[in-house]
Amino acid sequence: DTGVSQNPRHKITKRGQNVTFRCDPISEHNRLYWYRQTLGQGPEFLTYFQNEAQLEKSRLLSDRFSAERPKGSFSTLEIQRTEQGDSAMYLCASSFGRAGADNEQFFGPGTRLTVL
Amino acid sequence: GDSVTQMEGPVTLSEEAFLTINCTYTATGYPSLFWYVQYPGEGLQLLLKATKADDKGSNKGFEATYRKETTSFHLEKGSVQVSDSAVYFCALNTNAGKSTFGDGTTLTVKP
């Protein structure tokens, strides 16, 4: 399967714990995006990378959130001191090419986080 | 800022009925417009797209036309099937490439 993969698919944690999610984009894609989706809502942009550079972060991304993309390949999203409001589906997407409005993104299956 | 507004659901139709899901947008510049579909238990899949005014995107019998004058990108299908039951998201991309999504419309098609 050459699509975007995300691990784990599900994560249940207790409030206050740290969690880390991984995203493996399509191999030749240089751009990688993270979104968050809560029930009944559309995905909301969190951050994106072009190669290893993090180019934009949403105001939704509090100081407890950090994302990395070492060597421009896979990416990790870490949430420190999780809160119940962090419970959501975290989606990763990747695309190829220069920045542009017609840049088609390919989405992974998501990681569902539940904070108890 | 950029925003996408979709008609509220859920939408329930009988098989072979005509489908319209309304989508309007607000954006600076000249966005590209997309429709994504999410089947139960699966990830988002691109259904169709249009990159400039008056373009028509089409796929699997679904169509949508980029209307700049009305800032709309309504999704249509002439005859829906039970297998079309899913959540449909309208989205736009700006030159930065990130997407802004609507809240989704759940479609249920009954036999």
Summarize the structure.
Chain A has strands spanning 5-7, 10-13, 19-24, 31-37, 44-50, 53-57, 65-68, 75-79, 88-95, 106-107, 111-115. Chain A is mainly beta and 116 residues long. In chain A, the strands form two sheets. In chain A, strands 2, 4, 5, 6, 9, 10 and 11 form a seven-stranded mixed beta sheet that branches.
Topology:
The complex is a heterodimer of chains A (116) and B (111).
Chain A: E1 5-7, E2 10-13, E3 19-24, E4 31-37, E5 44-50, E6 53-57, E7 65-68, E8 75-79, E9 88-95, E10 106-107, E11 111-115
Parallel strand pairs in A: 2-11
Antiparallel strand pairs in A: 1-3, 3-8, 4-5, 4-9, 5-6, 7-8, 9-10, 9-11
Chain B: E1 3-6, E2 11-14, E3 19-21, E4 23-26, E5 32-38, E6 44-50, E7 56-59, E8 62-65, E9 75-77, E10 86-93, E11 99-101, E12 105-110
Parallel strand pairs in B: 2-12
Antiparallel strand pairs in B: 1-4, 3-9, 5-6, 5-10, 7-8, 8-9, 10-11, 10-12
Describe the 3D structure.
The complex is a heterodimer of chains A (116) and B (111). Chain A has 116 residues and is an all-beta fold. Helix content of chain A is 0%, strand content 48%. By secondary structure, chain B is an all-beta fold. Chain B contains no helices and twelve strands. In chain B, the strands form three sheets. In chain B, strands 2, 5, 6, 10, 11 and 12 form a six-stranded mixed sheet that branches. Chain B is globular and about 45 Å long. The termini of chain B are far apart. The model of chain B has no long low-confidence stretch (mean pLDDT 93). The interface between A and B is medium-sized, with 27 and 29 residues.
